[in-house]
Each structure stands twice: as structure tokens, then as C-alpha cells.
Amino acid sequence: MDALLTSILAVGLAEIGDKTQLLTLLLVARYRRPWPILTAICGATLINHGVSAWLGAELITLIDERLMSLLLGAAFVGVGLWLLKPDGEETLEAGPPGRGVFFTAFVLFFLAEIGDKTQIATLLLGAQFADVLAVTVGTTLGMLAANAPVLWLGQRFCQRLPVRWIQRLASLIFIMLGIWALLFEAHALSGW
């Protein structure tokens, strides 16, 4: 249950103000069909984050447990600091309308997630919890929780949220997870 809830919270908060929210807004503005877009977001995220969670869980078996704990702690702190940096002004094109709403949204969302903060976070969560299913479901639910309102409420929704403060809260959560992992490993090494 910890893996699921932590994954939902971490990715849901990290996604606020992310480029994929802007992509969601672009897609709904262009196609005005939220359900196929939501379905595409869900499918693309399940595949992308499923592979990431699996890779994270596999890393834990390949690397010494203590070294992995230190790496995870440092990586969580790194992601927390990365969240403080707003996304750049990438241009995300919706593609030609003739391709189909689902297909266009699926491909664009899948590609936008590659190397994204939430994909890296999913990999780290997979390594920390070694529960691929719970992490994948949690990060997908977090992604949907952050992007579904954008589909129905559009730009007004994004303008009213204190996006910068939500990014800071997500940053704090990741930094705290990292510090906790580092302190836990320091405790284990020293035999406290």
C-alpha cells in the first residue's frame, strides 16, 4: 500500500505544471474530445511507467543493497532539486487531425514521457519498493489525477492553481524520501 500511495502522491504532484499537462491542454484544445485523450494518456503511461518500474525493480537485484540505498537516496534528492527547475519552453505539436485522436495523443504522450521527471521518478520508486504493479498503477493514477482535470477544465484550471508551490511541495517530498533513504543507510552502516 505504501508503494501505491507514495507513487500516486509523488507523480501526481510532480506532474502539476509539467510539459505533459501543456500537451494535454494542447490536445483537448485541438480535438475537443477528452475521453479518447484520457484513454491514450492512460495507455501510454501504463506502458512507459510499467517498463520504468520494472527496470527500477531489476536494478535493485543487480546492485549491492547498500550501494543501491545510497544511490536511491542521492537520486531522490536529485529529482527533488530537478523539480524546482521549471520545464523549458518545448514545443509540442499535436500533429495532423486525420491521424485519429487516440493515436495522436498516445504517441505524443508516450514520447513526451521519455526521460521526463515522472519517468525517472517511476524508475526510482520501482527500485525503492520493488513492487512493479503497485508503482505502475500508482504513477499512472497520479498522472491521470494531474491531467484529467486539464481535459475538462482547460486553461482556467491551470491558471488558478499555485503551480510553483505545488512543484515545491513535490520537490520537498522527493528530497525527504532521499534524505530518509540516506539516513536509513547511514544508520545501517553505523549499527545505531
Task: Report on this structure.
This protein is an all-alpha fold. The protein has one domain. 82% of the residues lie in helices and 0% in strands. It is elongated. The two termini are 28 Å apart. About 4% of the residues have low confidence.
In short:
With 192 residues, the chain is mostly helical. The chain contains 8 helices and no strands.
Features:
single chain, 192 residues, 82% helix, metal ion transmembrane transporter activity, GDT1-like, transmembrane helix, transmembrane
Overall geometry? elongated
Mean pLDDT: 81
How widely separated are the two ends? Answer: 28 Å
Largest sheet: none
What is the string of helix and strand elements? HHHHHHHH
Radius of gyration using CA atoms only: 17 Å
| Count of beta strands | 0
Beta-sheet strand percentage?
A: under 5%
Structural class: mainly alpha
Instruction: Tell me the count of domains.
Output: 1
| Total DSSP helices | 8
Low-confidence parts lasting 5 or more residues at pLDDT below 50? 89-95
Helix proportion range: over 70%
Write the layout of secondary structure elements.
Blueprint: H1 2-15, H2 19-31, H3 34-62, H4 65-83, H5 101-113, H6 117-129, H7 132-160, H8 163-190
